[in-house]
C-alpha cells in the first residue's frame, strides 16, 4: 500500500515521501496516529504543490541571508568593555554584545546565530562567525577596547 508520510519516520522516509508499506502497518499504525495519508492522485498533487511552495520559500530565505551577508560585508565592529591595566576584561564578550553592536549599525542578527571561535577575555582583535543560513556563513571582525 502506498502512503504519503506527513512527518519523518525513522527507517521509513522523510516528510512528504511516498513510500510503500504493508496495508496493516498503514491502517493500524500510520494513519490512526496521523503520520501518513493514503497516496491517492489528489493527495500526491497536493504534496507536490506543498514541496514546490517550500522550495520557493527556502530559496527566498537563502537569498535574504546572502543579501544580509553582503550588506554586512567587511565591517569592523568596536566593542567597549571594562578592563584592568593588564588588558584583561572583567567578564567576557558574548554573542549578545556583538548582536547589540550589529543592531546599532542597522543589521538585525539573532544572537544565537553568532558563534565565537575563542573566549574573548582580553583587549584585542577577534573574529566571529554569523550562521545566517545553513549554506550562508559570514565572518565578522571586531575589536575589544577598554572603556
Strand and helix map with partners:
Blueprint: E1 2-5, E2 18-20, H1 23-30, E3 36-38, H2 41-72, E4 76-81, H3 95-104, E5 114-116, E6 124-131, E7 137-146
Parallel strand pairs: 4-7
Antiparallel strand pairs: 1-2, 1-3, 5-6, 6-7
What does this structure look like?
- Strand 6 and strand 7 (137-146) form a beta hairpin.
- The chain has two domains: 2-64, Ribosomal protein L9, N-terminal domain (Ribosomal Protein L9, domain 1, 3-Layer(aba) Sandwich), CATH 3.40.5; 69-146, Ribosomal Protein L9, domain 2, CATH 3.10.430.100.
- It has helices at residues 23-30, 41-72, 95-104, and strands spanning 2-5, 18-20, 36-38, 76-81, 114-116, 124-131, 137-146.
- It is an alpha+beta fold.
- It has a four-stranded mixed sheet, covered by helices on one side. It has a three-stranded antiparallel sheet with strand order 2-1-3, covered by helices on one side.
- The protein has three helices and seven strands.
- Helix content is 34%, strand content 25%.
Keyword list:
34% helix, Ribosomal Protein L9, domain 1, three-stranded antiparallel beta sheet, 147 residues, 2 domains, alpha+beta, four-stranded mixed beta sheet, elongated
Amino acid at each position: 500500500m502506498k502512503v504519503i508520510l506527513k512527518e519523518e519516520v525513522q527507517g521509513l522516509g522523510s516528510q512528504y515521501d511516498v513510500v510503500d508499506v504493508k496495508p496493516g502497518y498503514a491502517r493500524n499504525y500510520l494513519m490512526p496516529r496521523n503520520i501518513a495519508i493514503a497516496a491517492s492522485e489528489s493527495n500526491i498533487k497536493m504534496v507536490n504543490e506543498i514541496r514546490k511552495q517550500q522550495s520557493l520559500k527556502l530559496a527566498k530565505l537563502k537569498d535574504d541571508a546572502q543579501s544580509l551577508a553582503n550588506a554586512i560585508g567587511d565591517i569592523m565592529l568596536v566593542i567597549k568593555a571594562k578592563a584592568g591595566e593588564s588588558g584583561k576584561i572583567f567578564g567576557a564578550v558574548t554573542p549578545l554584545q556583538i548582536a547589540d553592536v550589529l543592531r546599532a549599525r542597522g543589521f538585525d542578527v539573532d544572537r544565537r546565530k553568532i558563534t565565537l571561535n575563542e573566549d574573548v577575555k582580553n583587549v584585542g582583535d577577534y573574529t566571529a562567525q554569523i550562521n545566517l543560513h545553513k549554506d550562508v556563513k559570514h565572518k565578522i571582525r571586531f575589536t575589544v577596547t577598554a572603556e
